[in-house]
Design a protein that fits this description.
Length: 314
Amino acid sequence: MRIPDIAYFDIFKKYDRIRQEELERYNLEAASGKKLLKPSDDPVNFVRALRYKELNKNIETYLRNSDLVLTKLEAAESTMGTIVNTGEALRVKIVQILNTGVITDDEAKALKDYFLKMKDYIINQANISIGEDYLFGGVKSKTAPFTADGTYQGETEETTAPISKGVELNTTYNGAEYMGVNYASGKILLVDVIDTIVNAIDSGNLDQLNNMTINVDLDNTGTTQQMKILDAFDAGLSKIMEHRSQIGSQIATLNDLKTQNESLKLKFTNLVSEMEDADYSEVIMNLQKSQTAYQALLVAISNTKDLSLLNFLK
């Protein structure tokens, strides 16, 4: 029985399409390095890969925020450390002036100049900025948080940035709390103490310093407490040290979470690679096999297209 030409044509057309699709597939895999080219290739792994990519995008955002937040935290911690060191040096001078009693005019002038310079230094440090953003002004980050006399004019509300799921850390700080502002006067308490000492030097009442007191409200309770000069200074310095310690803890937390996020990003990237990336050696081998099969198909077509029953008649 003779097979009609149309049957040969349909068979050859079918296998030609199959071989062409295989060649296109393996060429695309070789060019892109991916074995998941469309959802229908492997719906489950395609969805899983999309999920891991989305998780990695979130982690990348956390890592970018971590770098920003770490810069702000380290600057804030360094600044507060400088103020603490200055405060400790100031305390030595305060103890000295409280125990000295009567001093000469020249000594008084030298001490006054020293205290005023330290006051300006503390205020300048409290007004530190990174770029155009002041660190210790809360959400009011475009204006210097402290005036020239040490009065706080920033906001109590702070800005934060997410560094991990459910974890946010400060990018600006409530200067009233971090710098130990005396809510009774609105000034940094250390500055309040310096002003009191300078006023005593100007009035010649240094012998009364041991009995002088300052109205202090460090917790914004609306209730003031009368404290002696040295006690008030220690309270203000302790407040700054306490918040500096909190910043140090935040830095440690951030570094731990950053390491964890970097590890998760690497893990998810490897999982996506396992699902999507093609094995080049396998792809090349399959491509060569498909090329060989396609060439064999072309030869078969060439050899059969001219067949005739007359070829078998003797």
